[in-house]
Amino acid sequence: MSRSPRVMLISLLELLLFSSAAPAAAQQSSDARFESVRAYIQEIMEESGLPSAAVAVARDGEIIWDEAFGYANLEEQIPATPETMYSLASISKPMTATALMQLVEDGRVELDQPANAYLGAGKIHSPEWDPSEATVERVLSHTAGLPLHWEFFYEGEDHPRRTTDEGIDRFGVLVTPPGALYQYSNLGF
pTM score, two decimals? Predict the structure, then answer.
């Protein structure tokens, strides 16, 4: 029976939440309370062909269970560990959007204000269009006029990493008028 990734993720989250909600005394015991989660992860991996996964559950700021499954490197049969580095890609965007909307709810950010009002020294700019039209809402909805932008930094490379301000200053150039069209923008997040 094939399940959608969304259904598998929701089921996994439910298992994790249920398992980590055990009383404090149970939290001190072995990680046997995660057996159902462990079995489900292995089932998902087998069903989907996923080569590896690393999972951590935290409670009150402390990791109470972490484990890795499968291989970080299939060709060399190197097992994944809880410390295996994974590219998060766009998985962090919903978390960023959720955190931003919490700031909106708290009245600390206004969606209709220019994003530059909340940035540090690095600012969105353009020789052509008004950067004040690149509002928080437009940045959040990929309609601010910012480019796609991607840049990878690999371990062991010998080059200086930019600060956030340097990255925004260098790449935060509007390539289309704010609000004119949707263009997926990693830089916006």
Answer: 0.63
